[in-house]
Amino acid sequence: MHEVEEGYGWSAPELLNDLECRTALAQIWRLLPPRVRAIRQPELDEIDRRFHATTVGWPGRDDQEGQWWLRRVPRRLEAETAQRSTHGWPMGWDVMTFPKPEAVEITD
């Protein structure tokens, strides 16, 4: 979480890999005992709130439905080079099929 808040220095595929933990948690959450979910829900809500605040939703995509975290990108990206894709993304993010949102800041 701190890495996303401070400036994510890895690539889009790496972010997807990092988010697999959240996806796995979503899959098992309903299997946990209600007491455990009740105790841990505020903690999960706070982490989700922080992630939502420090990321930007994909243009034209609803991020309120299932696995919304997979349809968001960090607001701050650290890039090793000033090279940009035709959509304005740094190297490693050129897999994104939409233009880089203005709210996404890239630091070299």
Describe this structure in words.
This protein has one domain. The protein has helices at 2-6, 12-29, 34-53, and strands at residues 55-57, 72-74, 76-78, 105-107. The chain has a two-stranded antiparallel ribbon with strand order 1-2. Strands 3-4 form a two-stranded parallel ribbon. It has 3 helices and 4 strands; from the N terminus they run αααββββ. It is an alpha+beta fold and 108 residues long. The protein is elongated, with a radius of gyration of 15 Å. The model has no long low-confidence stretch (mean pLDDT 93). Helices cover 40% and strands 11% of the residues.
Summarize this structure as a short list of keywords or feature phrases.
108 residues; alpha+beta; elongated; single chain; two-stranded antiparallel sheet; 3 helices
Assembly of the depicted chains: single chain
Query: Which sequence of strands runs across the widest sheet?
Result: 1-2
Largest sheet: 2 strands, antiparallel
If you average the pLDDT, what whole number results? 93
* Low-pLDDT sequence parts: none
Q: H/E series, N to C?
A: HHHEEEE
The coarse silhouette is: elongated
In whole angstroms, the N-to-C terminal distance is: 21 Å
Helical percent range? 25-40%
Integer tally of domains:
1
The number of helical elements comes to: 3
Estimated share of beta-strand residues: 5-15%
SSE blueprint:
Elements lengths: L1 H5 L5 H18 L4 H20 L1 E3 L14 E3 L1 E3 L26 E3 L1
Parallel strand pairs: 3-4
Antiparallel strand pairs: 1-2
